[in-house]
Amino acid sequence: MKKHTLSGLLALSVLVGCSSSDEIVPDIPPSELYSEAQVSLQSGNWLSAIDKLEALDSRYPFGAYSEQVQLDLIYAYYKNDDLALGLATIERFSRLNPTHEKLDWVLYMRGLTHMAQDRNFMHDLFNVDRSDRDPEPVKKAFADFKKLLERYPNSPYAEDAQKRMISLKNRLADYDLATADFYLRREAWIAAINRAQELQKTYPDTEAALRSLKIQLEAYQELGLEDAVKHTQQLIDLNDI
């Protein structure tokens, strides 16, 4: 029974990521097709919206709806977890429209899309700790939101971007903590100390930075560095860890 359940979940996870459907988009006027795409978007029917928007984009690449179609595709791809397509569309739009009034939103969506790349359906489902996963998409998302704040400080998306940067910073700090712990368990004492200290320097205001002190303490103890042990213990006591 468990095997069938897991197989079903795996099949579902594959289906969720599919962007194309069997729907044949009729050859109708662009205004009518765009209206139908908007209905699909508003109802959350992402596959249908994507089919119609992609048809518009390919049939009328320089039409009256061209720019808005690409913006809608960015959103629909994100909602449907077609993240690679979303990023490709973002890059294309940014390259072709370097002064567009909605570039702050496009940059915000790039950050959200990179954040989404750090998600994993099965990990979320089974509540798996992902702190030791490669944080490259997180670094990109952090850079996107930072750029948004620098370029468009008055953007309506700036406040949310700033909040997300806090979460991303904690994710990056947790990764460094997991790495330091990995070195500790492998008895690579110097590597554990170096990673712990780098974490404390880069993300000093995170919970992970405080927790890394205990890894640092154990590594110093193993190396027999009494002065360093004493100093680290003082930091632990001072922060009531």
UniProtKB/TrEMBL annotation:
Whether Cell wall biogenesis/degradation counts among this entry's keywords is no
A Gene Ontology annotation in the biological process aspect, one of them, is: Gram-negative-bacterium-type cell outer membrane assembly
Q: Which GO terms describe its cellular component?
A: Bam protein complex
Q: InterPro entries from the entry? A: BamD (IPR017689), BamD-like (IPR039565), TPR-like_helical_dom_sf (IPR011990)
Q: Where is the Outer membrane lipoprotein BamD-like domain?
A: 27-234
Residue ranges annotated as transmembrane are: none
Stated membrane topology is: Lipid-anchor
Which residues are in coiled coils? 158-216
Report whether Transmembrane helix shows up as a keyword of the record.
no
Q: Quaternary structure?
A: Part of the Bam complex.
Instruction: Quote the protein name from its UniProt record.
Output: Outer membrane protein assembly factor BamD
